[in-house]
């Protein structure tokens, strides 16, 4: 077991009250495993993984629960220790590439520094490695690109520079937050190959957050679906796509626009909005939008039930 | 002349060049031709989808179209009026009517301002609404894009990626503009919220006769929203036509590869779709290949392609392609 998260809770104190962003999330990750994380925008995908990385910097945040990496507890670990793990054994690709890049240095310099921070190699060796990495992520002109500043790159190139940075140390655990949103399908296919290669050669475990169901169905071994700070369904890729159980998962899969055939006049969207995290409903958080909700849903919160394929829903539990 | 037969926006051989490096760097000063010879006509009430490889010049073209960049070559016309070299103050009256949603939402939202303020800002500058009317309009806009009332007082960093993206959309539509350029507006949204935004854009278009230029890598979304699409490669348009037609029968080898490579959720046994994966290196706009710029990667390239650059030409009403051997 490389990563084991138990009953993770993250809340933010704001002027309006307590925002319960993560409300009891548990999951495990084995060596060489790729876990896809999908879910509603704002459901806590990024925050839960930032917590794993020890990267929640907001002073108003409270983090509870347990995060074990190779058996070692990360919650409460001093910042210095966490920094040593990050970039060396654990790497993260941020949703917003500019979080990881500074505008004032060239990308070549930034990636080389990242390499040198964790490995004792000369500057010119590091630069050679940067060029190799940029070629791997499909930069048209890797040598020339090293001398560019972030603003001189396209959105997708910035994203690829950050991917190159994360891959530079062959991490044992890679957390990738929407790493291919700014990439066209061909470049994306190349990046997915790199992730598979990392897994094959270094037995790395990967958590891959994406809203692109096509990518999940191509890459992930297992999938976790989040809604309002909780995991509402998890299972193998096949289980999830051929037998989605939670009403939210079903609705989500039903919203994918078709690529062929007649264009629908309107896309089927889930009616209503997700609950305010300041005032979560008493019962099931999906209740107000759920097409099959019934009495029990308003009173208690359904737990994630099942073995490998599990859903948090009273209807599913009853069936 | 009615709205229908007057283009709202038109580019004539538009080009954008950047210089990079300095006289002191190893390679010296060099020029990136990010957008090259683009002639595009956009009609009122339509949605033009702009697709193509990462780095092919979509965002640069988008910024030229709303004149956030100075234009290096060619002309840009808005409602028939030449705005290629209008100064910032001359452009001011147009700003309200020409809006843009940026690819990178955090870069365009001031981190020190509450998001409610950020959405109210264009209303304060360009409209005559009273402050209570502005408040009401902001609440309405938040509701339209699926944000909650208690989000108004938050700062951008307190939002998820998709929530920030929707703040950008709310800001852009606040003033009921005529033309909105949307650069990857739904890329950070889950499919259901994405569907909600796509439906919202369609409703606004119907109600207010808006025109959109829509950039996205997710081709199923592009197909859904676009009436026409333009496929770009290395700064130029290589194919243009009605969205459904181009998706069903792309004429250009590059469009064919692009459309065939889309990953889809396989609910039926796989093997029904044939993928064309382009091999070879992605070219650099610093040193574009000779002749047809795709020839080193094109599966059907012939001798002629190496020397002669194909022009974008209309081979059937409404369908254009830049290729010596298109599938027509
Ligand atoms: N610093 C903060 N202060 C207050 N609320 C926050 C803060 N950071 C995040 N949140 C809230 O926590 C919730 C979870 O955010 P998170 O970024 O994890 O969502 P997400 O699932 O990654 O969504 P997306 O797909 O849109 O990126 C959101 O509703 C967000 O508004
Ligand atoms: N300020 C700049 N200085 C130098 N080169 C630039 C600048 N902005 C963009 N470029 C270059 O111009 C080309 C086109 O970039 P652009 O951002 O328009 O691409 P894009 O099609 O939007 O890509 P993506 O899908 O990755 O966002 C790229 O090669 C990029 O490196
Ligand atoms: S628990 Fe009830 S409300 Fe929640 S998803 Fe299941 S049926 Fe719907
Ligand atoms: S002109 Fe030649 S190289 Fe270019 S796309 Fe057509 S066939 Fe391919
Ligand atoms: Mg996120
Ligand atoms: Mg772009």
From TrEMBL, chain A:
Q: Which InterPro entries match?
A: AAA+_ATPase, ABC_Ni/Peptide_Import, ABC_transporter-like_ATP-bd, ABC_transporter-like_CS, Oligopep_ABC_C, P-loop_NTPase
Q: Which GO terms describe its molecular function?
A: ATP binding; ATP hydrolysis activity
Q: Which GO terms describe its biological process?
A: peptide transport; transmembrane transport
Q: Which UniProt keywords apply?
A: ATP-binding, Cell membrane, Membrane, Nucleotide-binding, Transport
In terms of Gene3D superfamilies, this protein maps to: P-loop containing nucleotide triphosphate hydrolases
User: Where does this chain mainly localize?
Assistant: membrane
Q: Which PROSITE patterns match?
A: ABC_TRANSPORTER_1, ABC_TRANSPORTER_2
The topology of this chain with respect to the membrane is:
Peripheral membrane protein
Cellular component per GO, a single term: plasma membrane
The ABC transporter domain is annotated at 5-253
Localization terms from the record: Cell inner membrane
A Pfam family the protein falls into = oligo_HPY
Would I find Glycoprotein among this entry's keywords? no
Give the similarity note.
Belongs to the ABC transporter superfamily.
Q: Mind telling me which NCBIfam families this protein's record contains?
A: oligo_HPY
Instruction: Name the chain's protein.
Output: Peptide/nickel transport system ATP-binding protein
Species source reads Rhizobium loti (Mesorhizobium loti)
Lineage of this protein's species?
Answer: Bacteria, Pseudomonadati, Pseudomonadota, Alphaproteobacteria, Hyphomicrobiales
Automatic annotation (TrEMBL), chain B:
Query: InterPro entries from the xrefs?
Result: AAA+_ATPase, ABC_transp_ATP-bind, ABC_transporter-like_ATP-bd, ABC_transporter-like_CS, Oligopep_ABC_C, P-loop_NTPase
Q: List where in the cell it is found.
A: Cell inner membrane
Q: Keywords on this record?
A: ATP-binding, Nucleotide-binding, Transport
Keyword Signal part of the UniProt annotation = no
Keyword check for Nucleus:
no
The record places domain ABC transporter at 9-259
| Coiled-coil region | none
A GO MF label: ATP hydrolysis activity
Q: Give the record's GO biological process terms.
A: peptide transport; transmembrane transport
| Membrane topology, from the record | Peripheral membrane protein
Q: Say which family it is in.
A: Belongs to the ABC transporter superfamily.
Q: What is this protein called?
A: Peptide/nickel transport system ATP-binding protein
Organism for this UniProt entry: Rhizobium loti
